[in-house]
Design brief:
Layout: H1 2-22, E1 25-27, E2 31-32, E3 39-45, E4 52-56, E5 61-68, E6 74-81, E7 88-96, E8 102-110, E9 130-133, H2 135-138, H3 169-174, H4 176-181, E10 186-189, E11 193-194, E12 209-213, H5 220-232, E13 236-241, H6 251-254, H7 285-293, H8 308-326, E14 329-332, H9 340-353, E15 358-361, H10 368-373, E16 390-391, H11 394-405, H12 415-422, E17 434-435, H13 445-448, H14 453-465, E18 469-473, H15 514-531, H16 534-538, E19 540-544, E20 551-556, E21 561-567, E22 573-576, E23 589-594, E24 600-602, E25 607-610, E26 614-622
Parallel strand pairs: 2-8, 9-10, 9-18, 10-13, 13-14, 14-15, 15-16, 17-18
Antiparallel strand pairs: 1-3, 3-6, 4-7, 5-6, 7-8, 11-12, 19-20, 20-21, 21-26, 22-25, 23-24, 23-26
Helix pairs in contact: 8-9, 11-12, 14-15
Bound molecules: calcium ion.
Residues 140, 142-143, 145-146, 166, 168 line the site of calcium ion.
């Protein structure tokens, strides 16, 4: 009788464990051989898993260490994957301590992918022109995923800017030709990983599963197809990644590995968002603490990246997506708020495996010193040196707004551009900074310049001919307008024509007004020229101090020279061409052809008249080459 009872218990336990094993989750779900870093840490999540011991029998794979944490539902297994390890499948056997129960989990090491011997990951550089879009608001290419059972935000409602609208990856896939036609070379979608949050989940910045594409956007497989399709059309892919915070419905937040997985306060404490505390020599510890550890929002717990298991989890997740999908660039959200040492380690790990990858961080700060602190810079003896290659250049964004909206003066009008770019000496490489006129958080550029078409052209010309990586938020091409409030929902409107039953379709010429087509054509002519222009993408920049409100600069290399002349003021300005001797006369330049209109400007008169609110980007013809 007693014997039977033991057998019954054993059978019961095996049954229970098998059921639990079916729910076991291992992140990353698979990995690759041939990675430069030969170690891998598996995060195993299953009920009571810390009472089990994992074993692996596969040539080249060794368990270095088994890490237990506060929560018995987790095990972190350190693996060594030797250089000679062959790709293949094996089982991880989990055996219980004491009663010899065991279960197994299938694991795979895949070969690293190559296409025709060349890595498919291309990187994002100043040769690119980035198009930013919010997938929920761009196009609904698959209505069958609009409402997914089991997700918490279960309805779509296009009348509410806070609700999901049904846009998805298929919608972006369907319009890659449109995006490509504008001269764009890279697409940056706001995050598409799972955001299973009860409300306002459309924006994607409250991630609930780092390894899974949100089912309302598609699937992991569809994302991989999207990247391949983009590559086949000459478009690169930027992934928007978030390490500072998660959604409070994240599976690992609901059952945390340890109490220090997120930063905790006695009562809800919001970040001060005051980046100064990080470099201010006079800062207090309490300001530093609340800035970095305060929560981004009530439903966005602040991750503690100093927890080594979490840091490894986030870094491996990043590497996993790049290798799995073939991503070319990373846009790192809220770069200022996570642990900066962790972020440096992340950059190091990414560039070790993918040296060509383009990386830029969002640094929504005020001031050149502030911004340059968070990116590779030329300061010496700083206690902290950021390894971030590039930033979203908010300082140049502010300068552009002022250049177009204030009267010319010592520090205003076009002097803002001149003074700002003169400060480029602080950056290790200012060409890795990302330029923009607006984005998904900011008032639309067209509204900011009071819907002035001439100023719009000046702004677009600056964006596409100044140094750095230009990026444009969707809608700019059809003069989308609106002002952003604190939650910015007003600038996150649907792309007309992207959704079933849309009356207007701005994806096609016929759906845009004459006025909008003029803007569209201006932008795409310039951007398509830029694509193959060595001067505008990788050439040097030489700028001239403005004296009357004009702004003149040259982009040039040994093959090509482009002269950009702007007059944002309301009066005519006469340029004395002798001032630009080193770029014109000394090179025997006689004329320049306007990239957009094709008209020729002759330089034989030593004077160039700039009409009020005018702009021209001129490709300089050289004597003897004409
Ligand atoms: Ca959909």
């Amino acid at each position: 009788m007693k014997h039977a009872k033991i057998i019954f218990t054993l059978v019961w336990l095996v049954t229970v464990f098998s059921a639990k094993a079916a729910e076991m989750r291992i992140d990353p779900a698979f990995w690759w051989t041939g990675m430069k870093n030969s170690t891998l840490q598996l995060c195993v999540y299953s009920n009571g898993i810390s009472n089990f011991t994992p074993t692996i029998h596969y040539a080249g794979v060794t368990i270095l260490k088994i890490n237990k944490v506060e929560n018995a539902n987790y095990l972190f297994i350190d693996l060594k994957i030797s250089e000679s390890t062959l790709p293949g499948k094996f089982k991880i056997i989990f055996t219980s301590t004491g009663n010899n129960l065991s279960s197994s989990y299938p694991y795979e090491l895949k070969p690293r992918s190559k296409q025709d011997g060349i890595t498919r990951i291309q990187g994002v550089t100043s040769k690119d022109f980035i198009y930013l879009l919010m997938p929920d608001r761009f196009s609904n290419g698959d209505t069958s995923n609009d409402v997914v059972v089991g997700t918490t935000d279960e309805t779509i409602d296009r009348r509410s800017l806070k609700a999901r609208h049904g846009g998805d990856i298929q919608g972006v896939l369907n319009h890659l030709d449109y995006i490509q036609s504008m001269g764009v070379t890279a697409v940056w979608m706001t995050p598409v990983t799972e955001n299973n949050q009860p409300f306002e989940s459309y924006h994607g910045y409250a991630i609930t599963d780092y390894y899974k594409i949100d089912p309302r956007h598609g699937s992991n497989e569809l994302f991989v197809n999207y990247v391949a399709a983009a590559h086949s059309k000459g478009l690169k892919v930027v992934q928007d990644v978030v390490y500072n915070h998660i959604g409070n419905e994240h599976w690992f937040y609901k059952d945390m590995p340890s109490k220090d997985w997120v930063h905790q306060f006695d009562k809800f404490t919001r970040s001060t968002y005051k980046d100064m505390a990080l470099f201010d020599p006079h800062a207090s510890d309490s300001d530093r603490n609340v800035l970095s550890h305060g929560w981004f929002d009530k439903h966005m717990p602040d991750l503690n990246q100093r927890n080594v298991f979490l840091a490894t989890y986030l870094i491996q997740n990043t590497l996993w997506w790049i290798e799995y999908a073939g991503i070319d660039g990373l846009r790192i959200d809220t770069w200022v708020y996570p642990d900066l040492e962790f972020e440096n380690n992340l950059i190091k790990a990414v560039l070790l495996e993918f040296p060509q990858l383009g990386i830029y961080g969002e640094t929504w700060v005020q001031g050149i010193a502030n911004q340059s602190y968070f990116v590779q810079n030329n300061y010496v003896n700083l206690p902290f040196q950021s390894m971030l290659p590039g930033v979203t250049d908010f300082q140049l964004y502010y300068a552009t707004q002022d250049a177009l909206n204030t009267d010319f003066g010592w520090e205003s009008g076009s002097a803002r551009w001149y003074r700002m770019l003169a400060n480029d000496f602080v950056y290790k490489d200012p060409n890795r900074n990302v330029l923009f006129l607006d984005n998904h958080d900011l008032s639309r550029f067209y509204s900011v310049i009071k819907e002035d078409d001439s100023k719009w052209k000046i702004g677009i010309t600056f964006l596409l001919t100044s140094r750095g990586i230009p990026s444009m938020y969707t809608g700019t091409e059809y003069l989308s307008h609106n002002f952003a409030s604190l939650s910015a929902i007003e600038v996150r409107q649907d792309f007309p024509g992207g959704f079933p039953k849309d009356q207007i379709n701005k994806f096609v010429k016929e759906g845009r007004s004459v006025h909008e087509n003029e803007a569209f054509n201006y932008l795409s002519t310039l951007a398509n020229f830029r694509k193959t222009s060595s001067a505008l993408t990788t050439g040097k920049l030489m700028q001239y101090a403005p004296f009357e409100g004009e702004y003149v600069y040259f982009r040039y290399d040994s093959n090509q020279s482009v002269m950009v002349v702007m007059n944002p003021t309301n009066k005519e300005i006469k340029l004395d061409l002798n001032r630009y001797y080193e770029q014109i006369k000394s090179k025997n330049v006689r004329s320049g052809i306007d990239i957009v209109t094709g008209t020729i400007a002759y330089f034989d008169k030593e004077e160039l008249i700039l009409k009020p609110k005018s702009v021209a980007a001129l490709v300089l013809g050289m004597r003897g080459k004409e």
